[in-house]
Write a structure and sequence with these properties.
By secondary structure, this protein is an all-beta fold. It has 2 helices and 25 strands.
């Protein structure tokens, strides 16, 4: 991967240019148990074929500051990505070619911020174009053009009470070969919101958000949310925080959900849900030693959950009611280790997502939904010593169902590690990194029948050039 960032400015105006290029052959070795060889049904050593990727882009920013509180920001992001459609394990063994996907993306955004008056104002306007061509076939174009805008005003009535009001608008025009001309030309989305906070005292804070969406062809409900936060000091260097929230959610079916050939379902209903959260965290800070431990419980009930299910072909449907519930545990500690500083992070998520009612007799209820993780965890450790930095991390992914017949992908654990050294040559700074991914060479699948790479190594040099006037 190659990239660079170029900055020019004088404190009043600035221009920032970033460009990058990334290419990977993805011809990694893996154990292939799906060769179809009756005499040798076990795994054979294979090499991934037809999975190359190529990605390049340019991000240009132009910013102008009128004074300390008022400024204008604008950016243009242009990206092109190309990839081969990775063959599955069965077809990889008898590989004879693959298909390609090319994406062109353009994003333009301009935003003005005015903060010199008691009423703070922000407004922005942008354009987004996404275009995909499948297998170099210009008759199979998937494109979307969007005009987006946002306006927002914020005012603090007192130090304890503040209000924010705003609106977001989107005009979306799809150009997709799989949509019939008569079903969709464009859609309009308008989101209007009002939010406020009230600080009762140093310990107790409450936030209220009121939101109403207006969208073509759908009647969206009123979706409010309420959050409460309470801080409790329990020692000279430690305190606890308690948070809770309740909200209503709403999601419109995507264009593909509704209009993709004969597989889309124009009769899909929007998803509608109610969400509840409660969390607590413990913080301690004493000198260089800092630690935070947090646990959060959540419950979400969604009616008309939208899912793509395989009925011989993949089709979109509403699962009448789905319940998602679970807990999240997080810990982050920074500890001095002699002359070094160590940072240890551990996160774990348990998420049960099960349909409790189903619109189709073919669906499975009271079982984890397809490809939705129930158990996930990650851990990392970083130690900094002068110009050196040592890091290691691990990621655990639990088992997942891949179909209605009970097939599960095996759980797996991935570990990475590396060293970073900061080299200074006069006024020039170099970050030299040597790292290894999947150091235990774990054999795993994220999607059934599709191989993932084993152990790999990476060496990189990052050079920062600073030109001053």
């Amino acid at each position: 991967m190659n990239g660079a960032k170029i900055y020019f400015g004088n404190g009043k105006w600035e221009t920032v240019t970033r460009f990058y290029f990334y290419q990977k052959e993805n011809d990694f070795p893996f154990n292939n148990p799906f060769t179809g060889n009756v005499e040798n049904p076990g795994a054979v050593r294979d090499f991934q074929k037809g999975a190359s990727i190529n990605n390049k882009g340019l991000l240009q920013e132009f910013n102008f500051r009128f004074n300390d509180k008022n400024y204008l920001k604008s950016s243009v992001w242009v990206e092109n990505s190309w990839q081969q459609v990775q063959p599955n394990m069965q077809t990889n063994y008898i590989y004879s070619g693959t298909q390609e996907i090319e994406n062109d993306n353009v994003r333009i955004w301009t935003e003005y911020n005015h903060n010199s008056n008691p009423i703070k104002f922000k407004g922005g306007l942008g354009f987004v174009q996404d275009k995909q061509v499948f297998d170099n076939n210009e008759f199979q174009i998937i494109a979307t053009n969007r005009i987006v805008s946002e306006i927002q005003a914020e005012y603090d009535l007192t130090q304890k009470l503040g209000l924010k009001i705003g609106a977001k608008y989107k005009f979306i025009k799809p150009e997709v070969y799989a949509y019939a001309d008569s079903v969709i030309d464009h859609e309009n989305y308008l989101d209007v919101f009002l939010s406020s906070f009230f600080q009762f005292n140093r310990q107790f804070r409450m936030t209220l958000n009121l939101r109403q969406m207006f969208v073509s062809n759908f009647k969206a409900p009123f979706t409010p949310s309420l959050g409460v936060e309470y801080n409790l000091r329990i020692g000279d260097f430690s305190f606890m925080k308690f948070t809770s929230a309740i909200s209503r959610s709403f999601r419109i079916p995507t264009f593909n959900d509704r209009y993709w050939g004969i597989q889309g379902n124009p009769d899909l209903k929007p998803e509608s849900g109610k969400n509840y959260e409660f969390g607590t965290s413990f913080n301690i800070e004493k000198g260089k030693w800092q630690s935070k431990i947090a646990i959060n419980a959540f419950y979400m009930g969604v009616e008309n959950w939208i899912e793509w299910r395989n009925f011989g072909v993949w089709m979109a449907q509403n699962v009448l009611e789905v319940v998602s519930k679970g807990i999240e545990f997080q810990s982050n500690s920074s500890i001095p280790l002699g002359n070094a500083m160590g940072n240890f992070i551990f996160n774990y998520t348990f998420n049960s997502v099960q349909p409790i009612k189903n619109i189709s007799e073919t669906g499975i209820v009271n079982r984890q939904m397809i490809y939705v993780l129930k158990h996930m965890a990650n851990v990392s450790f970083v130690m900094k010593l002068k110009k050196w930095q040592f890091f290691t991390d691990g990621h655990f992914t639990g088992s997942r169902f891949t179909d209605d017949f009970g097939f599960e992908l095996d759980p797996y654990f991935l570990a990475n590690c590396g060293i970073i050294y900061q080299l200074f040559i006069q006024k020039h700074k170099f970050d030299i990194t040597l790292s290894s991914q999947n150091i235990f060479n774990s054999d795993y699948q994220n999607e059934r029948y599709y191989a993932m790479p084993g152990r790999s190594f990476r060496f990189s040099i990052n050079y920062n050039i600073q030109l001053t006037k």
